[in-house]
Amino acid sequence: MNKFAIVLAAGKGTRMGDKDPNKSKVSHEILGIPLVNHVLNALKNIGFNRIITVVGYAGEHTSKLVEKESDIVWQREQKGTGHAVKQAGSILNNLDGCTIVLCGDAPLIKSNTINNLINEHIDNNNQITVLGAVVDNPFGYGRLLIDQNNELVKIVEQKNATEEEQKINLVNTGVIVFDNKLLFENLNKLEPNPKTKEYYLTDLIELFKKQNYRVGYHKIYGREEMMGVNDPTQLQEATSIMRHNINQKLIDSGVIIEDIDSTNIAPTVYIEPGVIIKKNTTIYGNSSISKGNIIGPDTKLVDVKI
Length: 306
Hints:
The structure is a single chain. By secondary structure, the chain is of the alpha/beta class. About 25% of the residues lie in helices and about 25% in strands. It has helices at about 35-45, 60-65, 80-85, 90, 110-125, 180-185, 205-210, 230-255, and strands at about 5-10, 30, 35, 50-55, 70-75, 100-105, 130-135, 145, 150-155, 170-180, 215-220, 255, 265, 270, 275, 280-285, 290, 295, 300. The longest helix is centred in the last third of the chain and has 22 residues, at about 230-255. The N and C termini lie far apart (about 40 Å).
């Protein structure tokens, strides 16, 4: 089956505090890599026929970050997620296959999760499959309502949820897989929200249900992978999580890291078992370190081979 991906990266991100109109939210970096490129890296090696990034605010800047890894379409006006996805129609209209939609400001999504979600969609002959996460505290998130046939009925937002629905801890991550043809056919049927005048992608769930299409979900556990970066605090939190995950994986492989909290290693770096990394060391880019080396302390390496 053909597989396509749409990465939403058009938002302004006013809470990041940027004053530069030429800097986009998704260009903020974690471990030397822009947020949107972390998402694109997660899509690699899955076998997508086309990957499309939707740019908007400071779009020229974002385009330069992604142009080698994806096609680019523009959302010239901020009219919601449904409107953003519709811009990819110039490339994907009438093509057979499935399309995954992801947010370009959620850098912790894993390749394995994406692959499992798409396989669930295909194996169950779904027309929509939503990635849901089981979390300890669901407050503020849209809840996934599941029926007796184990199908997703709809997503209920926090403000509209009943007292009973608020107890549901299966929440919307914002990652959805669609039948590609049906996606673009039904985007034209979306109505703008009466209050915001925006077109919401999640409204397609009820549209598909009314047409008796199969709507399912895939479940993960924890909020980590769905974390969006909307302000400096969330950027710091995502950085801390990614730093820890990378360093722990290296330690488990046999790399000696003296201080996990002061060591910053990009996910693009390769380090052989037996290497010793001392305090306050940063290694970015496409670097590789072979066994027998001691790196640091107080060292920064970018795109080096040792």
